[in-house]
Fold:
Amino acid sequence: MGLPCGTYNYSYAKDMAILRTKTHWALFIALLVLVFTAPLYWNNYLLGVANLIGITLIAAVGLNILLGYCGQLSIGHASFIAVGAYTAAVLTGTFELPFLVGLICAGLMAGLVGLIFGIPSLKVKGFYLGIATIAAQFIIIWFINHLSITGGFTGIAVPYASIGGFVFDTEASQFYLIMTIAVLCVFLAKNLARTRIGRAFVAIRDNDLAAEVMGINLFYYKLLAFFIGCFLAGIAGSLLAHWIGFMNAEQFSIAESILYIGMVIIGGMGTALGPILGVIFIRLLQQGVMFIAPMLESAFPALPAGFASGVSPMFFGVVIVLFLVLEPRGLAHRWMLFKAAYRLWPFSY
Amino acid sequence: MKSRKLLTLAGVIFLALVMAVMPLMAACAPTEEPTTPTTPTTPTTPAVKGPLKYGMSICMTGVAAEKGSPMGHGKLDCIKYINDELGGINGHPVEAIWYDNAYDSAKAATIVKKLMSDGALFFTTNSSKMMMASMEIANRAGFPGFASFSSPVCTNPPKHIYAQMPDYGDDFAAFADYYMKNIWKGEGKPKLALHLLNNPTGYGARDAALCLVDDLGIELVATEEHTATTISEMESMTRIKAANPDVIFISSTPAPTAVVIKNAFELGLYPGTVIGCAHASFTSALVDIAGASIVEGVYGVFPTCSWGDDVPGMAKMTEYCQAYHPKDYGNMDYITSWAEALIGAEILRLAVESCGYDKLAAGDAAAWECVEKNAIQKINYDVEGLHGPAKYIAGDNRLDKSVRVFQVISGEITAVSGWTDAPRIPYENFPDKFPWAKP
Structure:
């Protein structure tokens, strides 16, 4: 477990605790304080980026359960987010239902749609399943574009989220809402991985034949992984809809789906920390490259036309490639190594 | 062992960078644009006062870069011209705060927030898609903006978002009117097929067609759609061919439009059938991508003048384009965005004169309200002849309402009609078809 020397477990509950030492608790509380006081010293833009990270994190946690823990490749994750977003948009915008009803229904609807597209997982796996889930990307988006209730190609406006008369109409209030739900989702995922269900997921991922021989119901657990992963995607979609305020199917492209896989891989598949680090890394990198072209054009006016704007996507791609080459096991693994090295420092033996 | 240490070091550096990036992002907003013209110029008034911040969300990269890139160049060159040669706006330099949205909705949503945080007085986007990703955030905050290329949904119902030029629906209305008056010589109703990009660019035209075909006496026989990255439309064009249309209208961007026209050519559907394009399709990029011989005779609607037209703004725009971005010469998107920057500058001039710089310098909600009420809604500007006059009429958030019909003749995009006003299409009269237009 990589705990400091002298940390003993006198009970099963202690052994299972997520936060085991005083340092863990101190760091955790410090992190919570840092995150939840951020609106005091961050401007709306930084809060907006944090909100985007929070929403993305919820969806990535879902994909991590599906891909990282259960080993079921899904290349249609953005479409499941779209299902959640449009469910929330229609329920709260058109039918004027409360936000929380929309939120839960968004998760359930995305989960149910995920179940349908998860059925092929019983017959195929790996890249074959990936190709099967691409169908979700096209079919779901086609339906969204051609249903009148979703606003078709034009899109649909979504009101602010509100709970009990309190309207989340500022970036700061949205930040608290999104971060609270994101923390809950991460906590749920972390605990899920340590339950019977989580162990069944890992067994299926590592060797589904052996898992079946041990008595694990592949049909049930694979579909459960799809449901949970897509449920979280739906929750993320609902929050995204209320945050942006206007939904259009183009916001859920296949490129976005692939980016989600990239986040999980870069962060570290099958770890609770992985999606957090992966999402922060990719979203901050995206924001960072946004500044590159204006800065280059400003600093080097003699650069050929178009060069500066071309540097941004190149930089984005190169960083990801380098990262995968240098640390294929993800940021979470690097963090574990850092912690181990830090604990032993200055004696590396 | 050595590589292990290096990897550890790289990890530590990365984590430190992640922690540092958040505050850095707040500090690393772009500063003033470089001001080093290749042509010798002398500022008429030195720009020494505080800057006026003009926000831009530009798709310099991504799948729409063939339009976004020349548009970005056009507006940034124009700002350079305004600062260097005109001494800014009443002595205030125009500070172009721009970010590359890469035609990505999530980025566009954060960019509009960044522009608000940066204190921009208003913002612009090139495309309707990027505006749609930004507009509700802007509308909620009262942050005014306008899109160069827009869809009816951006301005209906009218809120804080404006359209620089007529939208894709207006393109259809103008082309259909021209077609019925000047091209159609047959008996009865001409058969129309639509080939649309599967986003608001395409469906803006479709919505107008649904509103207008009965009144215009046109029969809509086929509606097909394509993606921005399509490489073949043989299947959809075969279906269109089976419907035997007299005219095909395409509302898309240049690359997919080129694919559609090439496929029509290969199927023998064109020449023979009249092809018309909305303005997002119809630039020199279309001729370059498809080939001049294939698109010869294709019609298009465009709301700006052509390169080389005898209008007041042409000489300076041409000079800057050839000095800084010669590859964009001949591209009408460059004209569009140069005109956008001129309109932006006029808005800033009106705002400075009516609100005062101190109020604008705050770049807050009060400044935005002042800019919208006293500048955008008071504008009456000829845009130096580069497109129709920009003028606000209450209830109609399209600033310019004029278009012209062009045709590819000998490989050149040539005007074949005068300026025509595109009347506002009353989408709100069809609430069942267009729920987004409800007031």
About this structure: Chain A touches chain B through 59 residues (CB under 8 Å). DSSP finds 15 helices and four strands in chain A. Residues 9 and 15 of chain A are 5 Å apart (CA to CA). The beta strands of chain A are 156-157, 162-163, 166-167, 246-247.
